[in-house]
Amino acid sequence: MKSVLLSVILAFIFVGCRNENSTKIDDSVNNTENVSSELTTSNSIADNVVNNYLKLKNALASDNDKEAANDGKALEEAISNFDKTKLSQVQLASYSELEDDMREHAEHIGANAGNISHQREHFDLLSKDMIDFVKIVGSSQTLYQDYCPMYDNNKGASWLSEQKEISNPYMGKKDSGCGTVQETIPPK
User: Fold this and answer.
1) Edge-first strand listing for the sheet containing 157-161
2) What are the φ and ψ backbone dihedral angles of 147, each rounded to 5 degrees?
3) What HEC string does 61-117 produce?
4) 7 exposed, middle or buried (CB, 10 Å; 0-12, 13-18, 19+)?
5) Global confidence as pTM
6) What is the rounded distance in angstroms from the CA atom of residue 169 to the CA atom of residue 179?
7) How many CB atoms lie under 10 A from the CB of residue 119?
8) Exposure check for the chain: N or C terminus, fewer CB within 10 A?
9) Helix 22-61 crosses helix 116-137 at what angle (to 10 degrees)?
């Protein structure tokens, strides 16, 4: 009986508050939409970088050095066009430490069609920066941080993937399933 009475009282309070504050609530919804719009814009710009990285990863997983070169060039362009004005001061400081290295590794991958082992060396370094990039800036999709313990004479290497199923860019078709998911990175 007490819980029913408490529920009725809370309902009246809620209805009363809702009527008094309806304008405030409507205004906060509009403000949230504006923030979401900015966030979506920022993520769609970050997603251009992420999506080009994922295409590159998939080309390497398929042992396609020519496609990887084209994807490396597209990634370099996406990094160059990334809109840093949407970042907070903290994000900008962290991103600024990554930007030149990310662009340099993408450039090397783009310039080395026919030399997939060299592309994979730069992809290893690029992936370290991309993992940091996603953790700093975010992405609108769930990503998986994967790890291959066998790459580079058992030194191992990590990469980002859009799927849980392992498709190893370091081993390619030779051992495409080698690796494990280390972390799930939720969208933000």
Assistant:
1) 157-161, 143-148, 180-185
2) -140, 130
3) HCCCHHHHHHHHHHHHHHHHCCCHHHCCHHHHHHHHHHHHHHHHHHHHHHCCCCCHH
4) exposed
5) 0.77
6) 10
7) 27
8) N
9) 170
